Amino acid sequence: MSLTSVLFLAAYFSGCIAALVRHPVYGLITYVLMLYLHPPSRWWGQALPDLRWSLLAAAFTLLGVLMKRKSLPTAAMRKGRRAGCRQHFQQVRGRLPITISAEACG
Predict the structure, then answer these.
(1) At what angle do helices 53-67 and 25-37 cross, to 10 degrees?
(2) CA quadruple 80, 84, 89, 91: dihedral positive or negative?
């Protein structure tokens, strides 16, 4: 097995474990990387087992979301952040020589 394959496996499983332990976004990043890397089509991927790499990363992401669902932000929290962003821009607007619209917050 080549060094590239070993580094790939280390990065892949680090992303999957981080999706469970830290935050599910790491699983999403791993999933997107699998879309671009696609190990079976690379020269270094011939020695790796024929797995569905993206599906496995998506499963780890789903498990991470289910495990961390109480600590993830809800829609009400995101709405509150938008309101806070608008208030911040309204406070800053008077101090800047340019005009900033509140629609920049989304």
Answers:
(1) 170
(2) positive
Query: What letter does residue 50 receive in the DSSP assignment?
Result: -
* Interatomic CA distance for residues 87 and 4, integer angstroms: 49
Taking the complete model, does pTM exceed 0.70, yes or no?
A: no
Using a CB cutoff of 8 Å and minimum separation of 24, what contacts does 74-82 make? Answer: 82/106
What digits encode the pLDDT tens for the residues 72-97? 776 555 555 555 566 655 665 555 55
Query: Whole-angstrom Cα distance, residue 40 to residue 8?
Result: 12
Tell me the three state secondary structure of residue 106. coil
